[in-house]
Amino acid sequence: MATSSPQTQEPGLPDATESLDGDLTTWEADSASRMPVQALDAAREAAEDITPVPTEEDAPELAATLPPSAQAVEATAPEASPSVEAPAQPKATNHPRLFGRPIGPASLSRATLEQVIDKYTSRRMIVIIPMLVLAVVYLSLELGRLYHDLGRTVLFGVAASAMYSLLRSVQPDASASSVGQRSTAFSRPLYFIALSSTALILDAHAGGQLSDRDFYGIAVHDPQLIGLVRDFVLVCILASPAMFLFGVLPIWSTALHHLCEQLELHVFGGTGTINLAAAASRVLLSSVAVGVSWASFYGAAVMADADSTMTRQAVFALACGVAVGTSFWLGRLQSDGLLLFFERAASRGKTRSPSNANSTMSETIEPGSTLLAATTTTNTTALDSTSEGAPFDVPRSVDPHVEPDADRAPGVAESNTPSFMSTFENSQRRLFQRRAAWDALCATAQLLIWLLIVLTGLFAAAQPHLRHSATAVCCGVSFLLYYVLHQLRAAFPFGFRKQPLLTNREAGTILNPKRPVASWVEQLEFWLNRSLLHVLLPLAILAFINDSAEVLVDRWGTPVGSLLLALGGHKALRLRSGDLSLVYVAMAAVELASAYDVSLSETPVVDLFVVHFLLAKGYEWLLKLRFLLTYNGVYHMHDVLGSGLHAFTWPLALPHLIVMVVQSGIAALVSAPLYPVMGSAIFLVSYFRPIRFWEKDYRTSALEQATLRYDSRGRMLDVPANELNGIFYQHVLLKLRLQLARDIQEGRWGVVSAGDVFLMCDLDNRMTIFVHIIERGDGFVAFQIRGLEFAGTYCQSRELEALDRDPNDDRDLCQRCRPCTRLPWLSCRAILRQQTYAWEAVSPMYVLKGYSISLNPASSMFGSYELCRVLFDMLSRAIVYYMATDAELTCRLLASPEVQAVLKEYHPDFVNWDPLFVIQYHEDYDARKRGMSLQRFYEHYGDWLKHCLEQARTDAADDVSVLDSAESAATLTIEHDTVRLCFALSLLARRTMLRKMQQLRAQSDAFLHGYHALFSGLLKPSGVQDRWLELAVPEAVPRLVYRSARMALRLHQDHFLDPAEYEDMTTLFESIQDYDDRKSMMRTVICNEADRSWRHSVMSDFPSLLSLRYNLDDSSYNREFFIVSLTGRYRSYKLFKVNRECVRGLWAAQQQEVLFLRNPALERGSIQNCICVLRNMISQSNDQPVGYPIFVSPIVTSYTQKPDLPDPVAWFVQTARWLQQRFAAMFAFGSGGGDLGGPSIGSRASDHRPARPHQSSVQETATTMGPEQTTSHNGPHHEGRTSEADSEVLFQEAASDQETEIETVIDVAMTEQLQSSTMTHLDIDMVDDAVDV
């Protein structure tokens, strides 16, 4: 911020640069003593921007709205005369001090100091920084003996720069993902310490003799090789400033996360991680599992030396079982599973402590405070409580200025009720806990099963034939799953077929998709995957372990050999929980190498460890090369040329193609993205980063109208369209969270691995979604979605057109003849074009439950006086309807003295001559009296009021009625209080809307502005003559006025389609009753899009929603009103898979250009449309401020299990009880008498189950018959028949227990959901499943 010079600065005002970043408390104290008048005036001017000009009566309210600092200033401010100016104060200076005394003549201002050094206030930083400085100094002195002459001078310069970065952080930093990251200050000293320590350790081991042992032909201890590595590290230390300048090294947190993730991926065989803490905990768990396996294998090797065969075989079998069980459990556990366990334990501890009971309850019931709530981000006004520069005051706790949301739709949680998302998060947490318990049981079962199998001696007796056959079967089944079936189900099988050979059941219903049902292909793929995962792969890997055990121990000794065996076996067993597309290739390569080239083999387990690492890095290198050749290919030059820089550098890049290929290999080795510099043809290597890529955590809550202060709600009228459209992406996120893991397991998304990026396109709704797979395990998937603008730019539309283009229409010369067009394959040009794109079509139809979004311009529906008159007519009729049907509120209004005082003025000859009412807008306008008369209102709406009262009395005869019991609607006259109250409410609603319209009369759409303000519930009756309603019953305004305004929109739409439909009052009443949200939770929801009920209704899958939007489109800056209509249905998405290295490279390029190079051009060449790599859409999906997505979700986890997964303990108890009842009934039926087990079951059934109607009637009959009649049937000739009848009754009772329990569950679920009005698709699916059972 530019500061004013001393000559132009007002006297008495402090320097702006001194007070911006200074200590807030000190500034307030200083300002209170020397500038009270100026601070108070500034605070008052800020308050006048959002409120009317205050008067003396409004002074207390104005003082309450001022910030605390301004209140303190006002309290201590003396009465100053306007003519007297405060004296100028000198600048605050800081002298260097030693032991409390100033030293030297230098004096620096605070602004000057802040330009030289950073300000640290944390005690932790004050302790850490000197320790880092001492470490840098010590290591630089130790490294001085390894450098000579100029190298030593450069070393001390590098050390000085590392220490200075602790005093002043580098901004902007090429390795930072956002501007202003303070962690960049520690990157240079930490890297210097790490590299220096590595160089000193290598120098200490550089001496000695060459080792006799080798690993794949490389000596274990080679002094020459160690010296070369040491020299390379020394060169890296000197070149570290240049590496930081070009962004080759990341910040320390990103580097540590990447290191832990690479260890988990390539050492332990795991998958991606969601953050640094999860990666560290994952490495810790894997290390513990490998340690346990190593101890078991080491014990087996020691037993082998002691010649105890039986004991050795038992310990070896235990080691194999432990390896299988631990790998299964870790493969089923998500990366942050350990953190979730600790979090759950901590929350239980807080809940049990009495002191934290209130705080825990407040955190639980706070609306919108879910742990993983989605975040909406835009480049304009952000509806996010944590976004920078948010214009709204969003309190985290309960605010006394926040009004309750009285105009809620049914099913909307109140302020003291958990929201839908919090309820969903709680169900996901319960699912995680129950799933973890089941996984522990299954891991124990697998441990015991494979322990017994190994104990049988199968692996020792059947080798090597068992290994060869098991490997062949695994490779064959994997090839069938991950290549043959994948290609048969692809959009273009094998790259040249026109149509998929195997389709889903919903493939023929593109226009009207149905609920997806698993086909026989998906079921076959599921069961083949399960058998491969739990039977075939463990069998083959245990055969590898059995063959490698003795060889490794003999070659490397007992400790090292056991460690290699445990580590290799653990990784091989962990690989089965992720993507198996490379595992079977590695197994086939290992089998061929061990069979035909034994000299290069280091036992099958170690070979599998190394070969899989090489295949993973080779596949990553292949993806980078495809991105490089696609971006710089000659065949795409007309698409890629988005700037003059690319056209200039493209000829220069061709001779350096080999250099870029080598760069791509280095980038693949360290998992760093390869990016084009400023969109040119020159590629550089960015810093390595984890699969997650972006370091930002999205754990925020969405902003809602009910959580705002009332003086800030008016700004919600000008919310951009992108902010309102973010809820639809959040709804897609919820559906993907419930369905994605099962769909991937059934093969609907093709071959999926951690790091893959998919693109979902719904062209009808104009929704474009990037799905980034972060982590994939056995039964779960962690992912993140990014939603783009609905109405995007021209470049985005060009790329969407390319995605929507049908390759069957791309014909070359051979496809133009009629016989060739009937062939089942694509043209040659289409085949080549599909191979040269960075994306491929996965499925032309992916079905997901969602909404059909309809945006109709409101100007066409309110463009004439006749249509506006219809709206006012429907508004009045809706008010009459709610007055007649809401008897409780009507009685309260009529009993209020304020209402009675107003009704006294409305005599039969009353006329309102307010100039706001004109004849063009109102049906009941009295032209003779030139005003709104009560007589005309009664003539026009009297019959409708009588009809509503009669229908209300018929529907609720026992409830409180507006009319007395002796009255009837036919005797209703103009003097009745109900008629006058309806007239008064109708005038109030219309006058409130017309007053807003009068304020904006200069605009062409002033009518829509007024109606939108009334529809949104942000426009209250402000006139003196209209405040009686709020004084009488405050909740009457939302329950009558706002609700009627929203109902009028629905009725106006129906009238627009069929003007003669509502001429019949019965039809009109039935329509309003059908749209009335108070009658049922599954009716149409009509509300403002910024209302809490809108968000809750969308997330709860309400079938129909309606709203009026004032659209502010960020792309075209058009302001227009739209009627938003949502209809729940299954949507069809086109699914594409994008080259993940292309996405990572373009993300890194934009981050480098925008954050570090500071290119502010909005139409820069690096984001122009490029069809072959989707450059514009990928650039949009960056985090802000690099990109401009309208929605970025947190990293969420999807499970294959349904949320109603039973608890294992309860399930075992229920199963045992069920088996006990069945066996007891069976024995009772087979024994011929009920003495053995019948009485106990009968007593238990009577204790825990209510008596059935036929049982009670039988008991009553037996009671009335008397003892003589009941005992007459117990003779000897009836003994067998009686026993058989008793056993049959017992069998029927036992057989109906499960049905009774299911009915009880259904009744309880339906009752709870009806009471809370939050029935969702989860509850409906649970009820459907129970009914099917």
From TrEMBL:
The keyword Membrane is assigned to this record: yes
TM segment ranges: 125-141, 190-208, 228-252, 273-294, 314-331, 436-460, 466-485
Listed InterPro entries: Pecanex, Pecanex_C
Amino acid composition bias (Polar residues), ranges on this chain: 1-10, 1254-1274
Keyword tags: Membrane, Transmembrane, Transmembrane helix
Protein origin, superkingdom: Eukaryota
Recorded family membership: Belongs to the pecanex family.
Protein's name according to its UniProt entry: Pecanex C-terminal domain-containing protein
